[in-house]
Amino acid sequence: xxxxxxxxxxxxxxxxxxxxxxxxxxxxxxxxxxxxxxxxxxxxxxxxxxxxxxxxxxxxxxxxxxxxxxxxxxxxxxxxxxxxxxxxxxxxxxxxxxxxxxxxxxxxxxxxxxxxxxxxxxxxxxxxxxxxxxxxxxxxxxxxxxxxxxxxxxxxxxxx
Length: 160
Fold this sequence. Notes:
The chain is mostly beta strands. The protein is built from one helix and ten strands. The radius of gyration is 21 Å and the shape is globular.
């Protein structure tokens, strides 16, 4: 006889829904991404691979993570090195953070250590301690977008 699935708890958050204290961004639907959520009271140490979106509500310690999006909830802690496209901090990051796009530090967010980002937004109350560097080099274009610019120029008509 098969076991029935685990019952829904009254305060459970459906997959892809907004989590308390963690605003969502709308680039791609949350349920379309490979998402790892480290819940409150949970600690993870080691390597995290193939997660497009990392949501930290507990604690994560990792030597290096590459992801598209990093969200650290109020009360969440990330220690280590991470490189992402976009990051939003309502909790704490202690280590090295490289953000190719935008970094948002919410009013409860704390950034300790070293960070590099292209765009920065810090809400009133957000804290930055350590070294912060702005990335000023242009973002590399996708090969398909660069192809038309590389087309050969049209020949000039010859005049007799």
